[in-house]
């Protein structure tokens, strides 16, 4: 049977590639940098311009589909996942990298139908790497199949995570205590490239064994979640429970053995759900 979402996925790849061109061009020009939830939660005109470009292009081709976009939500649009086909977009994942010229900046497009993720596209625009994953059909980078690492010994692993943009000292303490415990298992190393989407693609590629973070958003992880699972990995909550796209928590790993070992070391902290009513968000 023909894939009902092939046209949408092809469009996502085309639009992500074009969005990447806009990002590369913008790096040559002066940037207008603004702040969102805090002085370290950055946004630029390029984030807004790229999201508008993706939105317009998808709306023209798929007028009945829904959208959740990082910058639209920041501008007050609801962040609600319904059964309708929904594009979940981070136009510039790694905005802080983009601002500083740190060379990992991705366009992330996830696509869900009836609340189930169908495909994910992550274009790491400065590396020119196009990662794709289609439910049940595998994951690829620039057309070559992706496969997670087969490592089951945590002491032989690299684990990725991020410091995020919450500077509440209690939260920062928990982030560092978790990293300290994981480092001291010991593991081969810890890394983080400043974009959740690329961190997840690195798990899918087998370059690192796992990635976890609390405080990220659905648009950071929707596409990566499909790519990791289609490369043979697992995606779950940081407490080992089922993955919840709106929870702002993710643990992606090459297998359950590594994931459950990491779960034991994570000191969780609260993060408002993405789909919490606006007035309940802190
Ligand atoms: C951020 C990046 C970063 C992660 C943050 C995200 P943004 O996305 O993915 O790696 O640590 O939690 O918010 O803001 O650059 O799109």
Automatic annotation (TrEMBL):
EC number(s) recorded for this UniProt protein: 3.1.3.25
GO cellular component, one term: cytoplasm
Residues annotated as binding Mg(2+) 1: 70
UniProt keyword annotations, A-Z: Cytoplasm, Hydrolase, Lithium, Magnesium, Metal-binding
Recorded family membership: Belongs to the inositol monophosphatase superfamily.
Originating species: Megalops atlanticus
Cofactor(s) the record lists: Mg(2+)
Highest taxon in the source lineage: Eukaryota
Name this polypeptide is given: Inositol-1-monophosphatase
Pathway named in the protein's UniProt entry: Polyol metabolism; myo-inositol biosynthesis; myo-inositol from D-glucose 6-phosphate: step 2/2
Broad EC category: hydrolase
PANTHER family, alphabetized: INOSITOL MONOPHOSPHATASE, INOSITOL MONOPHOSPHATASE 1
Record carries keyword Hydrolase: yes
GO biological process, one term: inositol metabolic process
Summary of subunit composition and partner proteins: Homodimer.
One GO molecular-function entry: inositol monophosphate 1-phosphatase activity
Binding site for Mg(2+) 2: 90, 93, 220
Catalytic activity: a myo-inositol phosphate + H2O = myo-inositol + phosphate; glycerol 2-phosphate + H2O = glycerol + phosphate; 1D-myo-inositol 4-phosphate + H2O = myo-inositol + phosphate; beta-D-fructose 1-phosphate + H2O = D-fructose + phosphate
Compartment(s) where it occurs, according to its Swiss-Prot or TrEMBL record: Cytoplasm
């Amino acid at each position: 049977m023909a894939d009902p979402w092939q046209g949408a996925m092809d469009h996502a790849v085309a639009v992500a590639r074009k969005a990447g061109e806009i990002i590369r061009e913008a790096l040559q020009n002066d940037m207008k940098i603004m702040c969102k939830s805090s002085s370290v939660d950055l946004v630029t005109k390029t984030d807004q311009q790229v999201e508008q470009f993706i939105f317009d292009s998808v709306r023209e081709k798929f007028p009945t589909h829904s959208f959740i976009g990082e910058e639209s939500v920041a501008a007050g649009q609801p962040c609600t996942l319904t059964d309708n086909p929904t594009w979940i977009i981070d136009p510039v994942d790694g905005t802080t990298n983009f601002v500083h010229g740190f060379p990992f900046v991705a366009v992330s497009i996830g696509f869900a139908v009836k609340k189930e993720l169908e495909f994910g596209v992550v274009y790491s625009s400065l590396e020119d790497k196009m990662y794709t994953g289609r439910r049940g059909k595998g994951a690829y980078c620039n057309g070559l199949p992706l496969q997670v690492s087969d490592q089951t010994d945590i002491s032989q692993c690299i684990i990725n995570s991020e410091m995020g943009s919450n500077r509440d000292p209690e939260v920062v303490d928990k982030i560092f205590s978790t990293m300290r415990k994981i480092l001291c298992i010991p593991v081969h190393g810890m890394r983080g490239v400043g974009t959740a989407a690329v961190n997840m693609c690195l798990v899918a590629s087998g370059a690192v064994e796992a990635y976890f973070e609390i405080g990220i958003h659905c648009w950071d992880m929707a596409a990566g979640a499909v790519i990791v699972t289609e490369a043979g990995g697992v995606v779950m909550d940081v407490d080992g429970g089922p993955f919840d796209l709106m929870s702002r928590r993710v643990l992606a790993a090459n297998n359950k053995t590594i994931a459950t070992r990491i779960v034991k070391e994570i000191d969780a902290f609260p993060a408002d759900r993405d789909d919490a009513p606006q007035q309940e968000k802190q």
